[in-house]
């Protein structure tokens, strides 16, 4: 399992997940850059993701949905707020309605992804920033930390696939 730590910080209103991968920073960056690769890991194994729109640039819009074991769909969105390839990506992340667009009542999180080289590959740190303790509690109660851990558990197989 590539996740090495998960830390909730109630003072900073953040959830930090640190993962390590036996691949170069450039290779790990591609799991974010390529929508077909995002689909192979963004959702947990029982809720695979499908990317419907992917504009990988500052200001770009991403629309996706995850399909559950019974066929139900959970829709989400990102607005990419900053990119510094191949080391940093920032985006707002939230829930979407049936049309794939952000729900007007949704409170998004702000995610900051950093990639840094290590002696054995790459350390990826994902920090999610929340609007309040209630918001953090709500998202964690939905199983977000476990889902992210499961999703990241799929990355090693993706990185080992020579066709990607």
TrEMBL record:
Domain Activator of Hsp90 ATPase homologue 1/2-like C-terminal: 23-156
SUPFAM superfamilies: Bet v1-like
Pfam family, one: AHSA1
InterPro entries per the UniProt record, alphabetical: ASHA1/2-like_C, START-like_dom_sf
Family the entry assigns: Belongs to the AHA1 family.
UniProt protein name: Polyketide cyclase
Organism of derivation: Micromonospora rosaria
């Amino acid at each position: 399992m590539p996740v090495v730590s998960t830390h909730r910080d109630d003072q900073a209103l953040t959830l930090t997940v640190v993962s390590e991968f036996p691949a170069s920073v450039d290779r790990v960056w591609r799991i974010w850059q390529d929508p077909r690769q995002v689909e192979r890991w963004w959702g947990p194994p029982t809720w695979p993701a499908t990317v419907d729109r992917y504009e990988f640039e500052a200001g770009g819009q991403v629309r996706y949905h995850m399909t559950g074991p019974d066929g139900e769909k959970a829709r989400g969105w990102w607005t990419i707020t900053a990119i510094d390839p191949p080391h940093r990506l920032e985006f707002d992340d939230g829930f979407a309605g049936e049309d794939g667009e952000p729900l007007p009542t949704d409170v998004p999180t702000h995610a900051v992804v950093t990639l840094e080289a290590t002696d054995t590959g790459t350390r990826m740190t994902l920090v999610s920033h929340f609007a309040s303790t209630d918001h953090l509690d709500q998202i964690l109660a939905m199983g977000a930390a476990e889902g992210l851990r499961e999703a990241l558990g799929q990355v090693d197989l993706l990185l080992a696939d020579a066709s990607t």
